[in-house]
Write a structure and sequence with these properties.
- The protein is an alpha+beta fold.
- The protein folds into 2 domains: 57 residues, no CATH class; 81 residues, Immunoglobulin-like, CATH 2.60.40.
- The protein has 1 helix and 8 strands.
- It has a 3-stranded antiparallel sheet with strand order 3-4-7, with no helix packed on it. Strands 6-5-8 form a 3-stranded antiparallel sheet, with no helix packed on it.
- The longest helix is centred in the middle third of the chain and has 27 residues.
Length: 159
């Protein structure tokens, strides 16, 4: 009489131990060497707290890198010059922007009506790079004020 051949057992699914990386059963987090006393496995709240802590740490690192990258930039001050009607509509304004910081940078300036700095129409203009401790003068096209030349003011931001 012959006996039927037995097939090898199908291996159980595994994943890596959270501490050392050894293969462990899918329903446990730590291997026997990393958890010799058989303590309860990490709870879902512990895992989520670890992930949240990592996100908070990442945001703090980004804030520090941003502070380092932007230190020495600005403050900027701007002055509106002449406005003339632009060909094709709108106005062309001459702006002078100064950078009192120790790094060259570009900024944005908000152009407003000189007699209505708040509550009236405005338009944001991107400046070219302003050298550290220097000034530039450039012309920008704006459309928020129609095509009739008028007195305009400018407020430039530091990044």
């Amino acid at each position: 009489m012959t006996t039927p051949a037995t097939l090898p057992a199908k291996p159980e699914p595994t994943h890596a131990c959270l501490r050392c990386g050894r293969p462990v059963a899918i329903d446990v987090a730590l291997c026997d060497e990393c958890n010799p006393l058989g303590l309860q496995q990490p709870a879902a709240t512990q895992v989520h707290a670890l992930a949240a802590g990592g996100i908070v740490l990442f945001v703090v690192i980004l804030a520090i890198l941003g502070r380092i990258g932007l230190s020495g930039v600005g403050p900027f001050s701007g002055q509106a010059g002449d406005t003339v009607a632009a060909p094709g509509g709108g106005l062309e304004i001459t702006l002078s922007v100064s950078n009192r910081g120790s790094k060259a940078a570009a900024t944005t300036c908000r152009v407003v009506e000189a007699d209505r700095p708040a509550g009236g129409p405005s338009q944001v203009v991107q400046t070219p790079v302003v050298p550290a401790g220097g000034s530039i003068t450039f012309t920008a096209s704006i459309t928020a004020f129609g095509d009739e030349p008028r007195a305009l003011g400018v407020d430039c931001d530091s990044p």
